[in-house]
Amino acid sequence: MSSLSPAARFDAVIIGGGITGAGVARDCAMRGMKTLLLEAGGPGCKTTAASTHLIHGGLRYLLYDRLTTHVTSWDSGHIVRVAGNLLTRLPIIWPVYSWHRHGIETVETLLEAYDRFQAMKEGRPHLRLDAAETLKAVPGLKAEGLVGSVAFDEWVTDAVGLVEANLGSARRHGAEVRCGAAATGLLVSEGRVAGVLTDSGPIGTGVVVNASGPWIARTAAWAGASIEVTLRKGSHLVYDRRLFPVGLIMQAPAAITPQGGDRYVFVIPLADRTLVGPTDLPGPADPDDTVSDPEEASWILDSVRPYFTGFPADYRRVMVGSRPILDAAGNEKLLSRGFEVFDHEARDRVAGLVTVGGGKMSDFRLMAETATDLVCRKLGVNASCRTHLETLSGQPAAAAPGFEMPSRFLQDFLKKRPRLRELHALSHLGWSLARHWAGQACLGRRLARADHLAAHFR
Ligand SMILES: Cc1cc2nc3c(=O)[nH]c(=O)nc-3n(C[C@H](O)[C@H](O)[C@H](O)COP(=O)(O)OP(=O)(O)OC[C@H]3O[C@@H](n4cnc5c(N)ncnc54)[C@H](O)[C@@H]3O)c2cc1C
Predict the structure, then answer these.
(1) Which end of the chain has the lower number of beta carbons within 10 A, N or C?
(2) Which stretches does DSSP call E strand in 368-428?
């Protein structure tokens, strides 16, 4: 590339081999750039491995950040088409009890609103079950106070396997991937990042992509740039077997929920394990200090136990990670889970450095595309993104249906306005509620049978 200094060996060096960095490495390599990824540990070993392992649109963001649900569902659709062999459709049941703050009509309204986004990621429309059918679908659930449930589906994946498959694809397109290779600093000369320092010597590059997850602020600080990151800690209990045939979402009893409000716990059966969690608590100042407190495990168990005649407590371990959230700390309930790509040349007058962070595993492909577009502009590379056109194993991907993204103007306008973001989300839900009641009045209540779940969510 003409813009590289003579000492440069790579067009792009990516710091971080979680799902974000792996996606960027694949995209850069597919656009013909000489690419290197450095990962201090193993592929996806930090936040990505500690996730709930869902490729989802973010049902709960419909309450306060609808555009994030929209964008994430849109990109999840691409992930389903390029990584389909690594994903499994999981039916998830949301039981509603008479003492829950949100009754079944409100919960079904939320799922009706989500159905529109489900279509983007090849999800199925939700189903509603009465109490008797819910008890058939979820063995061991307590009957007392149970009103019914709503069933929907999300994709589960092996998160580390998804990282490895992206890295495998990146390698096949020519990228070099070094695991167990930490970046220890940045080579900064005359306001430009010219390379990465490692224990085995400096590596020259045209652009450094900082994809170090919860560590992005530390990495950017090596070049004198500052990023505000809010860490939110999340723990899961990990069981060494599948506890249920379906996934569950349970409302934590109000009595044990800190600061009131609503908290939910997922029970997610994977191929050979079950994850129960996560918590969502203020994280440490330094991501290296992310540890799970013993109270978190108790809180998770206390959240699910009241609903079962006997919920096992023999979990094998507790898994913890810190979500890197790029939103000003404030009302934590309203923190956006959207992603950002920072051009440090425009922002901090440090050329040659791009940071990508925030977001979810469920929109990693779009995060990578946005970051790689910027890398291309910086290096004068004229190549478009193809990560949605080819599967991770190298086959042509199925054609994408023509779902629209939300308007760029609206996304930018609401980005820094959390209260307006919430108002925007709630006004849509208000309409959904009106439609829900109108539908019930005109068409009556439609209830499904438990034995219909498997066929519907196949
Ligand atoms: C509890 C929890 C549950 C979640 N559940 C979901 C979910 O179900 N679905 C979903 O879509 N999202 C989920 N998320 C969010 C998702 O996990 C993250 O958005 C995503 O994994 C972040 O990936 P990343 O690559 O940016 O960060 P990471 O996975 O943390 O990767 C960053 C990597 O950078 C490396 N690194 C750091 N510094 C250096 C350095 N100096 N040199 C070399 N390497 C370095 C680290 O070792 C690390 O591997 C969850 C998050 C948490 C915490």
Answers:
(1) C
(2) none
